[in-house]
UniProtKB/TrEMBL annotation:
CDD domains: PBP2_LTTR_aromatics_like (cd08414). This is LysR substrate-binding domain-containing protein. The keyword tRNA-binding does not apply. Keywords: DNA-binding, Transcription, Transcription regulation. PANTHER family: HCA OPERON TRANSCRIPTIONAL ACTIVATOR HCAR (PTHR30346:SF0), TRANSCRIPTIONAL DUAL REGULATOR HCAR-RELATED (PTHR30346). Residues 1-60 form the HTH lysR-type domain. It comes from the Bacteria. The keyword Transcription regulation applies. Belongs to the LysR transcriptional regulatory family. The lineage of its organism: Bacteria, Bacillati, Actinomycetota, Actinomycetes, Kitasatosporales.
Amino acid sequence: MDLDMRKLRYFAALAEHRHFGRAAEQLYIAQPVLSRQIKALEQELGCTLLLRTTRSVELTAAGKQLYEEAQQILPSVAAAVRRVHDVDQGIQRLAIAFSPGLHVSEAIRAFTSRHADVEIDVIPSRWWEQDRPLRDGRAQVGYMRRQFDESGLRIIPIGHDPRVACMPVTHPLASRPELTSADLDGERMLDVPNRRTSSLEEKFELIASGHGIALIPLSVARSYSRPDLIHLPVTDAPAIETCLAVSVDRRERLLRDFLEIATVTLRDA
């Protein structure tokens, strides 16, 4: 059976919004059209993807699995189409993924000074699946923090990112100049696997509202500074290693040049 990419894109939008009206608005189609396409997809797959009520849309187990698959398939297909167009138009392109808080701009400037004709894309990666853009083809190289799935990847160590405790400015520990891990015993921690938030913004909102403390990389703390939060050094918390990552089977000259330039530039930074 061939999977219709348009129907899959429609389903992914609906799974994201859990609302036919909002999904149809995002897709610029009429709501009845979206409903018909989703029903057709269910018929083609031979399984129920949604539980519909008058007020909400929930995913079945099959629907959740399809949504997870769609989040990998759709970006991969889009990246493949873009690469085909680039080849047809003679465009050289380098796509660089980066983890929250890590800044790759200095390396890009150094690379662009030598390769001004190369188009650069930057792709933010979610903190719990940093390697996803490399896996689905959206990026050729990533600037990331360990740990992540390193299978099939070549890793170039860059440096270390200290961890700090992020807490509300009103917290009893907030007046300390620094902390140890023992100081955090008994505190509610918003870190994997205790509670995985969908974004850093969500995590910081939870912290600011008194729902816990999180150990975060110093670079993230600097990039997402806000007046109602404070970040304190944790002297015995191990730092997180930063690195460049690239698929082991990628050997393009352009990519090699970027890795050489980025390794020196980012280590110096």
